[in-house]
């Protein structure tokens, strides 16, 4: 008995090693699920406060370019607004009963957004995450969509009171339903873990017409993003193995490496859509 | 007591450097140096296996929490820490006094370099294997391991060369 005890004590670093490895691997697997715990992520107050130091320093670095991007976008939106106004005017003039168009503006638009600052960001892992400086107190909830001024970023995966962690497109767990602008067939966009600028759009039926450089937008089916938000541009394509589908290489519109300000989109009808979808699945 | 304070300040300083600066480096979109391993490298030779393993696990876990990768760094560090006494024994033999820390002076230039590179290879290998459980891509994996091992080893050796505190201590 004594010898056995001596032996066990002598080898105690082995037991410790096996135990700690077990804990680590358990953590890896437990968090491989879509959502992370707040304690082990940058969503908790202590870690978020520390990482935000870098965020607040680097946010000054690209101001010139950011400003240029915003001005450009502003210009584009203004042009669009003018075009829309012009269109409404033309329709008003053409139609005897124009009230229908005017009243349209009062129709309930189910999306709202909050701006947030990126305080921590990674692009070098296979599972990357982005930390934002807004949380539950600012109205951020799980599964809200996140976009930047140039395109889709990801989905909120963990929320604490003041911070939240986003699962971005640059995470191999993330899948986004997308389509080629102008067509209605959807494919599934995912990241292959290699380059921060490219993702793959798979399962797009072969008869969908597109060209290199065409725009890829969100489909709006998922209730997370509104339809038609810019995702990226087709840069090349190849046939998938079974020949009925195309696989497209998509150059992402969002530059994840210099992300600093994002918008979190809230869909007021998300809950309703999911409830009804679950009911439908339950009926089968 | 002095040693404990020194150890804690090493720990805090290296974690801060790692999460605030180095985690934001993605050279060629592939390479992020993991300088925090310097803590495992510099633990005194006399530390027991169990202690080194546990401290390494703690270090890895804290890095994990900051980079949103629960378990990955912890698994890799635990393995590196566990293997450390064996590496030292194989490279330098049993004769080393307990109080010294590995450094260019105590291990010699070649010895220290070999010691660091073996430790870093073990750590990175575990880290990237655990990471690629989600997605396996052998060539990419190999490129990343080689790139990161080079960066981390170089950085650790550079820091060691400039670490006046470590040299004066012997």
**Rg calc of chain B:** 15 Å
Kindly state the number of beta strands of chain A: 12
CATH-defined architecture of the largest domain in chain A:
Beta Barrel
Classify the oligomer.
Answer: heterodimer
Number of separate helices of chain B: 8
How many strands, what sense, and barrel or not for the largest sheet of chain A? Answer: 6 strands, antiparallel, barrel
Mean pLDDT of chain B: 86
Give me the strand/helix succession of chain B: HHHHHHHH
Bulk shape of chain B: globular
The Cα radius of gyration of chain A reads: 24 Å
Count of individual beta strands of chain B: 0
Approximate helicity band of chain B: over 70%
Question: Can you tell me the CATH superfamily of the largest domain in chain A?
Answer: Rod shape-determining protein MreC, domain 1
Write the layout of secondary structure elements.
The complex is a heterodimer of chains A (284) and B (170).
Chain A: H1 2-10, H2 12-30, H3 45-58, H4 63-94, H5 99-103, E1 111-121, E2 130-132, E3 145-147, E4 152-159, E5 164-168, E6 176-180, E7 186-190, E8 198-205, E9 215-218, E10 230-239, E11 245-252, E12 261-267, H6 270-283
Antiparallel strand pairs in A: 1-2, 1-12, 2-5, 3-4, 3-12, 4-5, 6-7, 6-9, 7-8, 8-11, 9-10, 10-11
Chain B: H1 2-20, H2 37-42, H3 49-67, H4 72-92, H5 104-107, H6 109-131, H7 138-162, H8 164-168
Helix pairs in contact in B: 1-3, 3-4, 4-6, 6-7
If you had to describe this structure to a student in words, what would you say it looks like?
The complex is a heterodimer of chains A (284) and B (170). Chain A is an alpha+beta fold. Chain A folds into two domains: 126 residues, Rod shape-determining protein MreC, domain 1 (Thrombin, subunit H); 78 residues, Thrombin, subunit H (Beta Barrel). Chain A has six helices and twelve strands. In chain A, the strands form two sheets. Chain A has a six-stranded antiparallel β-barrel. Chain A is globular. The mean pLDDT of chain A is 81. Chain B is mostly helical and 170 residues long. Helices cover 72% and strands 0% of the residues of chain B. The two termini of chain B are 17 Å apart. At the A-B interface, helix 2 and helix 3 of A face helix 1, helix 3 and helix 4 of B.
